[in-house]
Amino acid sequence: MEGNSLRGFLEKLEQAGQLVHYTDEVMPEPDIRRIGRAAVDIAAGNTGPAVLLENIKGYKGKRVAINVLGTWANNAVMLGMDKDTPLKDQFFEFARRWAGGSDGELKWIKDAPCQEVKITKDINLYEILPLFRVNKYDAGFYFSKASVVTRDPEDPDNVDKQNVGMYRIQVQGPDTLGIQVLPFHDGGIHLRKAEEMGKALPVAVCLGVHPVISLMASAPLQYDQSEYKYAAAFMGAPQILTKTLTANLDIPAYTEIVLEGEFVPRERFVEGPFGEFPGSYSGSRRQFRIKLNTVTTRKNPIFENLYVGRPWTEHDTLIGLNTSATLYFQLRETMPEVKAVNAIYQHGLTIIVATDNRFGAYAKTVGMRLASTPHGTSYAKNIILVDGDVDPFNLVQVMWALSTRVRPQKDVIVIPNTPGMPLDPCSEPPGIGGKLIIDATTPAAPEISREVRMVDSIPEAEPYQKILVDLQKAAAR
Amino acid sequence: MKCVRCLTDNAAKVAEAPDGSKAWEVYTCNRCNFVWRSTEEPEVIDPEKRDPWFQLAGVEIESIPVFSPVPPLKK
Ligand SMILES: [Zn+2]
Fold it and tell me: What is the pLDDT of residues A118-172, one digit of tens each?
């Protein structure tokens, strides 16, 4: 069942020509940061490879994987598609799988690969794992792609309320982690309940999992929806889990590295800054702490981490389509005219919606609906509406719509003083913002527009693309 | 030893390169939790060259904001 694992996915990437082995010696800093940055910068996040670093100074024999899901080509491989698949087609395949919901199958095994190696004393993460500083002014070495597993302390046998969430984690001591979990996160609810009871909440931190697990861990699922069941439905295959050694927690059986421990109850410790996804550093805050008691790994484990910072980065790719699909389904519940949603920019601070106009000025209502979805309330700052036949993932088409459809005096709305996203560097005070709605759709009756005839799009031209590309490939030989 | 960020005497060596190469050491501060490796760029590990914006010299730990307040105990 390597198909369920990071290793299985790396094999698929390798077959598609999307994995490279970096065997020259590198320094943990600043080289790994630079290589991660470069991998995602190739063709602006579209075609760069995942990188397996196999020769890190001081960490001989240990390996780092970076940019695993950094680019759209790698995302296409995850979706079982050709690596050249256009983003709009990836979005529809993603949405089809996403619609599978939370009824996927789970299976448990014993003696799982993730527990081939067990470390229960003298834990020193600085020596066990090839850690590195992601951005120059981060407070230390961070896990930027960890899946953190906790259970509801008031309902500890409930698998659906078990949470798998992605939170930033700083290694603050040999067996000590600092972690940012916010009160509205599902993990934050577990922590509040445990602290109200005065209890230490057991936790497992999983490093190196199949990208679909990372995808679900970073997705805003409902409190009682299982990320593992979602992942199983999405992949069309059961998720293979095992139990942690020290608590009743389920972890993916093929995880590369599992850190087991407990949250320190009712105390907070300095954490941050950390270079975040809007491309700015967060400040220092006092946050939760985890004390580890056990580390288990596969033999010769791969430490996977992601580069996050000034966009485009793997963080954007990882959350781009799940943010888009979530909003797409929420809008379509009452507005079937919505054709596609592109919310890949900065977790949806800027969103482009393709929609037909049911009647005059309808698109503006779509914009307001988007602004009042759970995610859109604090995100969805810049909302652009384009016609249903415009591809919102194709910025050439979006710019054309803006150029030829927007009447500034009628189609641009600014709503001041709304909820904002604290990590948005221009949210002032942090958490307060505004909304910008730009309606770049063609007016519909009873709205009156100027009489013009637009040039048709030519769908019949599309099959010729493949013919021409094949001819081009043949000509290059 | 002195922490390069909060400049108090709360830092200590916690690790050496595990392959025995002596390539570097890792230090942590148990007051502000800054962590660094001996081989990093001067702008990261030299207090004189670090961007003052990121320094915590003279900052009381209790004055650093908390995102998730400790809730009251429920009996
Ligand atoms: Zn310090």
Answer: 999 999 999 999 999 999 999 999 999 999 999 999 999 999 999 999 999 999 9
Residue A207, SS3 per DSSP: strand
What is the three-state SS of B5-51?
Answer: CCCCCCEEEEEECCCCCCCCEEEEECCCCCEEECCCCHHHHCCCCCC
pLDDT over 80 at B75, yes or no: no
pLDDT (0 to 100) of residue A2: 67
Domain total of chain A: 2
CA dihedral A223, A75, A308, A350 (to 10 degrees): -70
Q: Compare A103 and A198 and report the one with higher pLDDT.
A: A198
Domain extent, residue A355, equals 334-448
Q: Yes or no: say if A229 and A239 are a contact pair by the CB < 8 Å rule.
A: yes
Residues in chain B with CB shorter than 8 Å from the CB of A287 are 66-68
> Is A141 within a domain?
yes
Task: Reply yes or no on whether A105 is catalytic.
Answer: no
By Cβ distance, the residue of A137, A266, A271 closest to B70 is A266
Beta carbons within 8 Å of A238's beta carbon, 6+ residues apart: A104, A105, A106, A107, A232
Query: Is residue A328 situated within a structural domain?
Result: no
Q: What is the pLDDT of residue B65?
A: 93
- Comparing CB atoms, the residue among A127, A196, A285 nearest residue B66 is A285
| Rounded distance between C-alpha atoms, residue A141 and residue B43, angstroms | 16
**A276, A183 Cβ separation under 8 angstroms:** no
Question: Which positions in chain B touch A165 (Cβ < 8 Å)?
Answer: none
Verify that A124 and A66 share a domain, yes or no. Answer: yes
Task: Provide the CATH number for the domain around residue A275.
Answer: 2.30.110.10
Q: pLDDT for B17-31, tens place per residue?
A: 999 999 999 999 999
pLDDT over 60 (residue A1): no
Chain A: give the shortest CA distance to residue B11, in Å.
11
Confidence check: pLDDT of B55 > 90: yes
In a domain, A210, yes or no: yes
Place of tokens 């209890």: A199
Residue of B nearest to A60 (CA): B19
User: What would the pLDDT profile of A407-430 be if each residue is shown by its tens digit?
Assistant: 999 999 999 999 998 889 999 998
A262, part of any domain:
yes
For residues A133 and A264, membership in a common domain is answered with yes
DSSP conformational letter for A56: B
CB contact under 8 A, A271 and B33: yes
Which CATH number is A400's domain given?
Answer: 3.40.1670.10
**Distance separating the N- and C-terminal Cα atoms of chain B:** 43
